[in-house]
Amino acid sequence: MPFRWILVLGLVGFTQAGWPAEPVPKRPYPPLWPDSRFNDDFSALGNPEYQPVEPRDFWDPVKWIALDAERGIHLSIGGEARLAYEMISNASFGAGPQDDGRYLMHRYLLHADLRLTPAARVFAQLQSSLLEGRRGGPRPTDRDELDLHQAFAEWTPWREDGFQAGLRVGRQELNYGSSRILTFREGPNNRLSFEAAKVMLSGQGWLLDAFAGRPLETDARAFDNQALETQSIWGLYSVLDVPALPSWQADLYFLGYDRDPARFNEGAGGETRYSWGTRLHGRKSGWDWNFEGLYQFGDYGGGTISAWTLASDTGHTWTDAPGRPRLGLKANIASGDEERGDGDLGTFNALYPRGAYFGEIGLIGPANFINLHPSLTLQPARGWRLHSDVVFFWRESTEDGVYGPGGNLIRPAGTSRARYVGTQVDFSASWQVDPHWSVSVEYGHFFTGSFLRETGPAEDVDFVQVKSTYRF
User: Which end of the chain is least crowded, N or C, by CB within 10 Å?
Assistant: First the structure.
């Protein structure tokens, strides 16, 4: 085992990236479910003094099953069914026969959370992702007949005076910060998980994780997903309250990453990359903010890596106005390679970002780009959310190409000196019908810019998605 893995795993006692759950939630079924279902907490249903704010739910009998009440052994079962129908024209800007298509995606998740003691539990989750009708067949993130998405054991032996420490080992999702650099990839049909070990520590106003693992490679057949031998990730991630600024929190993190081979506009080669980052975020008096900066260094082939990114998301919500409008602005930049053929690499790598990084249309990824992103969000009625935004894209470096959401090179730089890549317009509406069922519709249009027109096919892209999700 490499020394860095021994170092990370030797820091025993670090906790998951999320503040400790409330001891007794006011209602067992919140309108919005946790991003990762291992964070579900229905222990209030086992409290004889608990009085629900709302009537008991149909699924209550399976959310907190007492297998041995005297010994504290309980089981919670949950799941999700998601259907998404998509229509897209010119998905590769007109470069391939699969560009135009209509297809239906199914995703089913089923999990069981076995609490053996207050300090020990076992969690398992199945995932089935299916695709119908896509011209050109499924993409790697589209189809997986059935597989064990998560299966881990967790032990939390220390819980005292606000301090908590534990260890989680096995197949698991990793999700940190704003999901810009390490997450479970919710947008595509297949969520991402890792074969990993995580040691965990938290206290009053702070937490720290140390982890190491490999991502799972998705195979379309049943129960055949394996950890990728060609990729690994390890690191430390912390979240801290800022005492001098009560409305602020700070994330500080260090990540290490190996991939071989890695392909960029510069070429292909082995990649070892280290990332130092910080994130400042909070909300007050209707304002919300989220600022993040990250620097990367390491080795690529026979050269070195020096890359960076800066990201911001600032908004204001008028809570007393009709529709509670939020006006927001994102401004982001990520480095590209400055000199082709010199052997060194300046392209930023977002590692494992959220799949729908710039909307469900999923065309452009966070590498070698400058981005301005104004948006407007309305909540016209209970459970309803209307959202519109405009995203302007430019290349940060004219020596580098344009990359997709997964970090894949989708258009080499060629001889073009143009920076402008295009403009994307999105409109979406979502309705939380009840605590379990939500529906949404989204339309996106991408207007191609001068760089795409100068380097190959450059048809505008239209995208429509209708989605229905049921969780319990």
Answer: N
